[in-house]
Design brief:
By secondary structure, this protein is mostly helical. The longest helix is centred in the C-terminal third of the chain and has 21 residues. The relative contact order is 0.07. The radius of gyration is 32 Å and the shape is rod-shaped. α1 packs antiparallel against α2, α2 crosses α3 and α5 runs antiparallel to α6. About 50% of the residues lie in helices and about 0% in strands. The chain is built from 8 helices and no strands.
């Protein structure tokens, strides 16, 4: 909606460093129009003083002076012709956008176990029978039970865990539920949590 006489920020040019506001940006734009280097220098130093007062908490920071002059150069698109008291070459690299990172694309057949548990399945598949594999099996089974309880994803019964453990280790790990005892700390089954709330 356009109303004559009203000036909306959405209709204005986007600010390079919004934290300093539009008035400081206007000062920088004005400084670039001054005809002599001496005038531009004096104006730039005044602008730096204003910028410094806008963040007094950073006044004692040793890098604050460098940062302010870097920001001034950035706001002028490096077109302000003055004698900078600091080296502003590194400020140019601040304007370079980082390369986008590839999001890890992992497809787990059962999401609620998470990628770490599937890494444990792969580890277990390659291990020889013995105390080390037994200990990792115990840790993996307990983590699977924790995950099922945490996400309340259907049943968290022991038979399901034993079945999934055998399935995802290609049958290498067979949990004997007559001998195996789960240990999941203070976590409680969803039904048990509800019963405790009623008491």
């Amino acid at each position: 909606m356009n109303i004559e006489g009203l000036d909306y920020n959405t209709q204005r040019e986007q600010l390079i460093l919004p934290e300093y506001g539009r008035e400081v940006q206007k000062m920088v734009d004005y400084a670039m129009t001054l005809p002599t280097k001496a005038e531009r220098q004096a104006c730039a130093e005044t602008i730096i003083g204003i910028m410094e007062r806008m963040s007094p908490q950073a006044h004692d920071n040793a890098d604050n002076v460098q940062k302010l002059w870097d920001h001034l150069a950035i706001m002028s698109n490096f077109k302000l012709d003055i004698d900078y008291p600091v080296d502003i070459n590194e400020a140019k690299s601040m304007m370079n956008k980082p390369q986008p990172m590839d999001y890890p694309k992992q497809t787990n057949p059962i999401k609620h176990y998470g990628s770490m548990v599937f890494e444990l399945f792969e580890k277990l598949k390659g291990m020889e029978p013995g105390p080390e594999r037994d200990e990792l099996t115990r840790l993996t089974a307990n983590q699977m039970k924790r995950n099922l309880i945490q996400w309340s994803h259907g049943s968290s019964d022991d038979e399901k865990i034993a079945s999934d453990l055998a399935r995802f280790t290609d049958g290498k790990i067979q949990l004997d539920l007559d001998k195996f005892k789960f240990s999941i700390g203070n976590m409680k089954e969803p039904g048990e949590r509800r019963r405790n709330k009623r008491k």
